[in-house]
Known about the structure:
Blueprint: E1 2-7, E2 10-15, H1 22-29, E3 48-51, E4 54-57, E5 70-72, H2 85-92, H3 102-115, H4 121-127, H5 138-155
Parallel strand pairs: 1-5
Antiparallel strand pairs: 1-2, 3-4, 3-5
Bound molecules: FE2/S2 (inorganic) cluster (FES) (2 copies).
One FE2/S2 (inorganic) cluster binds at residues 37-40, 42-47, 57, 59.
Amino acid sequence: MTMRLFINGEERSAAVHPLTPLVDVIRDELLLTGTKSVCREGFCGACTVHIDGVPTMSCLLPVIAAEGKAVTTIEGVGGPGNMNAVQHALEEHDVVQCGMCFPGMVMSMTAYMERRPAAPRADIKAAMSGNICRCTGYERIIDALLSIAAKEDTTA
Ligand code: FES
Ligand code: FES
């Protein structure tokens, strides 16, 4: 069956079973391999994308549930040359280790920091709880995210 998706601002289609996990369509059919497929059980957050702006684990979502909605992957939120605030902060703080968790982390935290750019440390920590970093660099990631508000303060 042909599934039609609106992904990163473009219409794309894929001939797949409607119950195929969205992450598999994104990676294997549309070749947007920035989104990672790790636990495939809704546990690690590596597969996080935005569906109509809401962070969503794409390993748990059948592709048919994404039809007619705006899907954004890591390729759609910024990259080299046009990084968003979260990506900038993570790069400036040099926090990436193996990088496997980072696409999902960036998707979750981009949505969160847009809503709460001045969130305190404890709240950021709680917001990150759905994204597991096996390299355990959490404290530096939080420091990086806190710097977004600090930077806005000094430029206000
Ligand atoms: S791969 Fe989807 S939550 Fe881990
Ligand atoms: S940087 Fe390696 S899993 Fe997070």
